[in-house]
Design a protein that fits this description.
Blueprint (H helix, E strand, L loop, with lengths): L1 H21 L4 E5 L4 H9 L8 E6 L3 H13 L4 E4 L6 H10 L3 E5 L7 H8 L4 E5 L4 H10 L6 E6 L4 H4 L2 H7 L3 E4 L6 H9 L4 E5 L7 H6 L3 E4 L4 H11 L7 E5 L3 H13 L4 E4 L6 H10 L3 E5 L7 H8 L6 E6 L9 E2 L2 E2 H19 L2 E4 L9 H11 L3 E8 L9 E5 L5 H19 L3 E6 L3 H4 L5 E8 L3 H7 L2 H19 L1
Parallel strand pairs: 1-12, 2-3, 2-4, 4-5, 6-7, 6-8, 8-9, 10-11, 10-12, 13-16, 13-17, 17-20, 18-19
Antiparallel strand pairs: 14-15, 18-20
Helix pairs in contact: 2-4, 2-12, 3-6, 3-8, 3-12, 6-9, 8-12, 11-13, 15-20, 17-20
Length: 496
């Protein structure tokens, strides 16, 4: 009896220990405040309990904040914001909490007024100001406050999104961020490059930000660009090989939050990527999938970064490329019965699945999105070309006997047998439940598209076109919607 109880207890403990990891979503944390000042203060609390030095910039002076962020890192100082004319309440409170002795203001009096500086002094804090005649000059002066470095990050001083993802790289390596415009190197920037002995440079942004003429005048330049701010941020993370154990995510148009978030990412030895406020941007999904990211810190509260983005980041299909293959098409109608064509049902369900996967944060790709015919090999090729993580082929079943009915899901054992079986086992019961059909089980078969696709692959036979009861369900939009949702849920469960 004792031996039996011991085995039972061990088995139960094993089950308890196994379940949480098996059912884990991606880890998502959010740090934000009621405004940019509150968010910067909240971010500082993630690292600093006290700080003898703090860096303060104007809440709308994004260029100043970008150049200040690497210096703040080097001085082990939080980056905080203030209103121009009065010290922001959130920042005042935070400076008191930090027991700060010295504040470095970055920017001239048009950004942070003398009155604001005096209010900081009234807290018993000494104030030093670093400012220049313009943003180029201010950045150059900030650079001179940093340790010696042979490399600099160069960005357009008016295109703030370009430099954000480079901030952790610059900060952690002690590199200054200097500014140009698209067509000219400002004398202050040129002077800083010469004075600091900069031998090489990372240029953040394409030729629309810094043209080829300016690029060629910079010391040993390397350009990192993207088709938009989201791809640029992703490419900076990828090409600079920045750490991604817990990636910071911010609104690509919320500069104040993003810059402060990038400063914190540096302190955490992490990187930052950008998205839009309402949806996970495609380019951001790509880097999530490519780097297999699964832990995120969102910068800013809603609506700066919506709950929808948070939910997409949590979803384990986020960033995964899923190939959806609606079977048949054009002259190949597939099965015909009870007034419907299989090719039409497959496409309808495929489109609905595409919508659901996209909403979940995945990168769905369809072999066909209209009534087009592709050969079986072409479908396999599309999956390989897309670099798909999964291949899902959607079909309707048929039999000479109209009594044949139900749902079955197939996998092949040629490639990824165990993973394909597990995927089929997650999808099959959910589709059966959605359609209230007979469960015909998970089976193996050498169907071409799943036999020759090298990623985990399944072929779902949703129901029988030739069975009146099954077909009546496949005619209804509500059941096709439920089927797509069931396949989507099965894919999510597979990744969990």
């Amino acid at each position: 009896m004792r031996s039996y109880l011991k085995v039972l207890i061990i088995s139960m403990l094993g089950l308890i220990l196994f379940i949480p990891s098996a059912l884990a979503d991606n880890a998502v944390k959010r740090v934000g405040g009621s405004n940019r000042y509150g968010t910067a203060a909240a971010l500082s609390k993630q690292v600093y309990s006290t700080a003898s030095t703090a860096v303060v910039v104007g809440g709308g002076s994004y260029a100043d904040a970008i150049s200040a962020a690497p210096m703040a890192y080097q001085k082990n100082a939080p980056l905080l914001y203030t209103n121009k004319d009065n010290l922001s309440a959130e920042t005042k409170t935070r400076l008191k909490e930090l027991k700060t002795k010295t504040v470095i203001i970055v920017g001239g009096t048009p950004a942070v007024s003398a009155n604001t500086a005096n209010q900081i002094k009234a807290l018993g804090i000494s104030v030093k100001r670093i400012s220049g005649s313009n943003r180029y000059d201010t950045a150059a002066k900030v650079a001179m406050e940093m340790p010696a470095a042979s490399k600099a990050v160069i960005a357009n001083g008016f295109l703030y999104a370009d430099a954000i993802a480079a901030i952790p790289y610059a900060a952690m390596n002690g590199y200054p961020i200097l500014f140009t415009n698209q067509t000219d190197i400002n004398s202050a920037t040129a002077g800083a490059i010469k004075s600091k002995g900069i031998k090489s440079s990372i240029v953040a942004g394409g030729t629309g930000s810094i043209n080829a003429s300016v690029f060629n005048k910079l010391p040993s330049p390397k350009r990192i660009s993207g088709s938009n701010r989201y791809e640029l941020a992703a490419n900076l993370v990828q090409q600079l090989n920045l750490p991604t154990g817990n990636v910071f995510v911010s609104n690509g148009f919320g500069y104040a939050d993003s810059i402060a978030g990038a400063a914190l990412a540096a302190k955490k030895k992490q990187s930052i990527i950008l998205t839009n406020g309402s949806n996970l941007s495609k380019e951001t999904r790509v880097i999530i999938g490519r780097k297999k990211l699964s832990s995120f810190t969102i910068i800013g509260n809603t609506p700066a970064v919506s709950s929808n983005v948070a939910n997409q980041l949590k979803n384990p299909v986020s960033g995964k490329t899923i190939l959806i293959d609606p079977g048949h098409g054009d002259q190949d109608s597939g099965s015909i019965g009870n007034g419907i064509l299989e090719k039409d049902v497959n496409l309808d369900i495929g489109k609905r699945l595409n919508t659901k996967l996209n909403a979940s944060g995945a990168l769905p790709v369809m072999t066909r999105s209209n009534d087009t015919f592709y050969s079986l090999q072409e479908r396999v090729n599309k999956g390989a070309t897309a670099g798909a993580d999964l291949f899902i082929s959607v079909h309707g079943n048929a039999n000479d006997a109209t009594s044949a009915n139900g749902t079955e899901t197939y996998y092949d054992e040629t490639y990824q047998a165990a993973a394909s079986k597990r995927l089929a086992e997650q999808i099959q019961p959910k589709v059966v439940n959605a359609l209230s059909t007979r469960d015909r089980g998970v089976k193996t078969a050498p169907f071409y598209v799943i036999k020759y696709s090298k990623m985990p692959s399944v072929l779902v036979e949703t129901a029988f076109i030739t069975n009146p009861s099954d077909a009546s369900k496949l005619k209804q939009a509500s059941y096709k919607e439920k089927t797509a949702a069931a396949i989507n849920d099965g894919i999510v469960s597979y990744y969990k």
